[in-house]
Amino acid sequence: MDFYRKEWPRVAAVQAMVLGGASLLIGRKSQTNLRALSVMNAMTMCAHQYEEYVDPGNFPGMVNAAMFKSDQPLNYPFNAHSAMCANIFFRALYVPAMLFPQVKWLGLPPVLLGIFQAFAHGLLAPRVPHTKYSPGMLTAALLHLPIGINYLSALRDQGPIGRDNWLKSIGVLVIFFAGGVAAPNIYNRDKNSPYPFTE
Questions:
Q1: 93 Cβ partners below 8 Å, 6+ apart?
Q2: Chain mean position to CA 6
Q3: What is the DSSP letter of 103?
Q4: Which of 26-30, 39-43, 163-167, 175-179 has the highest average model confidence (pLDDT)?
Q5: What are the C-alpha distances in Å from 54 to residues 47, 59, 81, 91, 102?
Q6: Whole-prediction pTM
């Protein structure tokens, strides 16, 4: 009872994600609005970032301490400024899919990113620090993955996706990772960074 009294808001948040993801999977034949699915996917990215950086919010520490073995895990090599810059690009990736839902190669990159997040946070990230949980895992597995499956199903119902669309989507993701993720983190890497994460 003491645990639930203290943790009920988090339990409710997980319950909401389970209900949302399960209802999407169960009703995937009737959920065919690509714009609505793209909006849900973008909303999930916002919730995903909250899970990574706020509650429980120890994703930066996991990156710096576990992945990079940093002796300054509060601000090196990943710091609050580089995280802000990269995460703006993460959210920006979802905008074209919402504005142009019929352009397949614009809709696919955020869907593929969400599915990748589910595997990265669920399988790869926990292996580095030898934990069972990685911040971002719940939103990725319970929302990004079901939304992605539903989106791909709805997109296929409109006709073949086509090799061209897959290649363009992969190209968008390569540009996104190089310019939106790697560049801000490399450019802002500084042992004397005045932008530490909180403990």
A1: 109, 110, 113, 172, 176, 180
A2: 27
A3: -
A4: 163-167
A5: 10, 9, 15, 17, 34
A6: 0.85
